[in-house]
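Renewal narrative, Specific Aim 1. Our central claim is that a sequence can be written position by position from structural information alone. The example that follows is taken directly from our test logs and has not been curated for this report. It begins with the structure tokens describing the chain, in the order in which they were read.
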């Protein structure tokens, strides 16, 4: 794992108009996603994990609406980001909506399914960082957020959003935690 957050990317996010709060969130998601990626011991594109997580909320430079993912993908394309990174901004909303959900939301006719493990790790890290940092739930540490992830999503609708989205998030959690257990790299990450 050699990817490190690049100051040029942080400057690009700032220049695009991302607020300090949203930028801080994006950095935390990138750090958490990279930690999770390392613990899975899977053959992953760590640059995609780190940069994708960093730019996942790019659209919040222009809107905090449910369309921020699509707006972020379009902005990322205009800024010259690689398509795989812009796609992560597009796909992270509600864990990657189905074609039917996209149609109901008025989204363009595109694929919003996170096919790559890197994409699902970023979505999972985003949920975890929301749980860890928003102060709504008292946690002893980040490990507890991972351990109680399913229970927290089931108990607190703000994290699970809706039934379909909650089930997607839980599916990603199970998939990723299984990889971590298989690799023998349970929290915290081993060096």
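The sequence written for that structure reads:
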């Amino acid at each position: 794992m050699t990817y490190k957050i690049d100051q040029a990317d942080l400057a690009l996010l700032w220049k695009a108009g991302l607020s300090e709060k949203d930028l801080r969130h994006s950095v935390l998601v990138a750090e958490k996603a990279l930690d999770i990626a390392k613990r899975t011991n899977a053959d992953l594109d760590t640059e995609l994990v780190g940069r994708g997580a960093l730019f996942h909320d790019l659209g919040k430079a222009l809107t905090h609406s449910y369309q921020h993912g699509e707006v972020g993908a379009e902005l990322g394309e205009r800024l010259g980001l690689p398509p795989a990174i812009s796609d992560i901004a597009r796909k992270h909303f509600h864990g990657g909506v189905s074609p039917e959900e996209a149609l109901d939301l008025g989204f363009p006719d595109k694929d919003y399914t996170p096919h790559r493990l890197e994409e699902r790790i970023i979505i999972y890290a985003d949920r975890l960082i929301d749980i860890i940092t928003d102060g709504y739930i008292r946690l002893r540490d980040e490990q507890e957020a991972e351990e109680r992830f399913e229970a927290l999503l089931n108990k607190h609708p703000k994290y699970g959003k809706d039934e379909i989205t909650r089930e997607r998030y839980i599916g990603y959690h199970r998939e990723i935690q299984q990889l971590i257990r298989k690799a023998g790299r349970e929290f915290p990450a081993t060096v």
